Automatic annotation (TrEMBL):
Domain OmpA-like: 518-635
GO cellular component, one term: cell outer membrane
Name the UniProt record assigns to this protein: Flagellar motor protein MotB
Subcellular location, principal: membrane
Domain of life of the organism encoding this protein: Bacteria
UniProt subcellular location: Cell outer membrane
Keywords: Cell outer membrane, Cell projection, Cilium, Flagellum, Membrane
Length: 635
């Protein structure tokens, strides 16, 4: 029991490599097999050792684990082993039995992966004729990855520092360099430290990007093991000064201190920086972002690169080639392994993402691809046959071939037609379809409707053609109901070409729109309106939710409301009353700042006088009492 408890303490501290041997010792005791095996599986997964995690997930599932993500993570562990049939079976069971506590992004990722695994035989047909060579003496039993060429040097990230990272048991990461011979698949000398000023023993450092003139470097630094979850990774900047010396790195202001920010890359002209981050507001997991750099070297606010690039999974290690193509690694797009390398091209407003195929990709992690010449370059992989963990490989690229299905000509063009249809119903139980509802589908780029229709007896509308890459708004209105505006985007909804088996495929997206009845004194709870402790200023996450109310008020111009704030009971009555009144007023002031007439709203603080859960005990119950609502005063 002591070993198990010690293992759990290490696990909770993010010290997964120290937790694993304790869990192994605990097997001699009378520990619940489901819990013990799930903990050990998660310790391996959290330290990016998916293949080693697989047998422990299997044991945990056989022992009856109730952990909701067990089959989801087991599926990815099996996929890294090349066991696609087993991965598909686990994910299908996960999707079929997913509890309501599973996040939307996780469930969407699982459904996408099911489709990928079903089409794995098609994915495997794409093969690139290249020579792939392990960089020999450059690699070690530890990790070597993120290769980049600067002048005649190959600079890379490697686990070679003296201090050990408790997460995975490897030595801490640092930056190293080696001379390149004329023959790129060989190096001329043993690797050495890249810079004495960029070498802190107690942190991980790596994945550098260099400006066009080679005198500015952006790198990732953090993960000293003191914070669970690896959230202490930020982007830093260093400049080359006199004496060919790099300056002490300074943290970039675009970094999010609560998130993981890493794998930076410059555009060809050096005016844009791309990087990966799991900051709030993304598509799920780690996303790619971009920021512009002005003539003074200032960085603009980072922008998410959208759903065509980013998925509910992870997108990392961006690289922009000389011909302006974006290469990146992802486990969310249809791929052969955990991380695959993809290339994104944009034409006519539509972004196409294409898997690089074998042997660039494998069932393992493949990432960090760069080109040194149009048909030569480097990448990193932890595939079988390497020196240890992640290794650096050199490749010489040839032509791409795809083994087409027997029923389709080799180069037959394949097209997809996309359509939108839906239903309008009353937001009540049971849901009742609404006829006579006016529906407009608006092209956001032009502001013009592409379709206007009145629903018939079953409350249906559609179908109407859509264009790839475009954003739309569906506006539904009916007398006696609040007008509702639903965004709909075609970003990220294009069917990957690898899944197309017919010359023409028609796909219809069905949208269900629920209208709330406009009844006097009806109250609506605004979800996710949170305030900092004892504060009443509007936080960014609260502003995002209040913007939805702004839209409702603008779409229903005759509506007048009372906006109320409520507290829990964990403070004196008078204090709670003042705090709730201030919060309600702050919310109203915010809405007024967005162009809504103040005469249409009344701010009211109720303190703890209208509890939803009396005698609340859990934090969840207290949160239900700490709510923001609006009530219809007049129509």
């Amino acid at each position: 029991m002591q070993a198990y408890k010690k293992g759990v303490r290490h696990y909770d501290a993010g010290e997964y490599n120290l937790a694993i041997p304790q869990f192994e010792k605990a097997r001699k005791g009378n520990i619940d097999a489901a819990k013990l095996n799930y903990y050990e599986a998660e310790a391996y997964r959290q330290s990016n050792r998916f293949a080693e995690a697989a047998p422990f997930y299997q044991k945990a599932i056989e022992a009856g684990t109730q952990e909701p993500n067990a089959r989801f993570n087991y599926a990815y562990a099996l996929k890294t082993q090349g066991n696609y049939a087993g991965a598909l079976e686990q994910l299908q069971q996960f999707v079929a039995k997913a509890p309501k506590t599973i996040g939307k992004a996780t469930l969407e990722k699982a459904k996408r992966e099911v489709e990928t695994l079903r089409a794995m035989d098609i994915l495997a047909r794409k093969k690139t004729q290249i020579n792939l060579k392990n960089m020999g003496n450059l690699n070690s039993p530890g990790a070597e990855f993120a290769p980049i060429v600067r002048g005649e040097e190959l600079i890379f990230t490697a686990s070679r520092k003296d201090k050990v990272y408790k997460n995975n048991g490897q030595q801490m990461l640092g930056l190293y360099k080696t001379k390149l011979n004329q023959k790129l698949d060989e190096t001329g000398n043993a690797p050495e430290r890249f810079s004495a000023n960029i070498f802190k023993e107690d942190v991980n450092e790596g994945t550098p990007a260099f400006s066009k003139d080679g005198k500015t470097m952006i790198l990732a630094r953090g993960n000293n093991g003191k914070r669970k979850g690896g959230l202490d990774v930020d982007l830093f900047i260093s400049r080359l000064g006199e004496g060919n010396t790099w300056s002490e790195p300074q943290r970039l202001p675009i970094s999010d201190s609560t998130a993981w920010d890493g794998s930076p890359a410059f555009s060809v002209d050096g005016k844009t920086l791309y990087f990966a981050s799991n900051r709030a507001g993304g598509q799920g997991g780690i996303d790619l972002y971009r920021t512009s750099i002005d003539a003074s070297g200032r960085f603009s606010r980072p922008v998410n690169m959208g759903r065509d690039i980013n998925t509910p999974g992870d997108e990392m290690f961006p690289y922009v080639s000389a011909d302006a193509k974006l290469y990146f690694a992802s486990d969310g797009h249809p791929g052969l392994g955990k991380l695959d390398v993809f290339v994104a091209t944009r034409s006519g407003g539509v972004t196409r993402v294409e898997n690089m195929g074998q042997p660039i990709n494998s069932p393992a992690d493949d990432f960090g691809l760069i080109f040194t010449e149009p048909e030569k370059g480097f990448l990193a992989s932890n595939r079988e046959g390497g020196k240890g963990d992640d290794d650096i490989y050199f490749f010489e690229e040839g032509t791409t071939t795809t083994e087409a299905p027997p029923t389709i000509a080799q180069n037959a063009p394949k097209t997809v037609r996309y359509f939108l249809a839906g239903t309008v119903s009353a937001n009540e139980q049971p849901v009742a379809p609404l006829d006579s509802a006016r529906v407009r589908i608006i092209d956001d780029a032009t502001g013009q409707p592409i379709a206007e229709v009145v629903t018939g007896q079953p409350g249906t509308f559609g179908k109407y053609p859509l264009q790839e890459g475009k954003d739309y708004t569906i506006l539904a209105e009916r007398k006696g109901y609040l007008t509702r505006r639903e965004p709909f985007t075609m970003q990220g909804k294009s069917i990957p070409e690898v899944f197309l088996t017919k010359p023409q495929t028609d796909t219809t997206f069905n949208v269900a729109i629920l209208l709330d009845k406009a009844t006097l004194n009806r109250t609506f709870v605004l979800e996710n309106i949170y305030y900092d402790l004892d504060k009443f200023n509007i936080r960014p996450d609260a502003a995002e939710e209040l913007d939805k109310l702004v839209t409702i008020l603008k779409d229903n111009p005759t509506l007048k409301i009372e906006l109320s704030s409520h507290t829990d009971v964990r403070a004196p009555d008078a204090y709670n009353m003042r705090l709730s009144q201030n919060r309600a007023k702050s919310a109203v002031d915010y809405i007024v700042s967005k162009g809504v007439d103040a005469d249409r709203m009344v701010a009211k603080g109720y303190g703890e006088t209208q509890l939803v859960v009396k005698n609340a005990k859990t934090e969840e119950e207290h949160q239900r009492n700490r709510r923001t609502e609006f009530k219809i005063l007049s129509l």
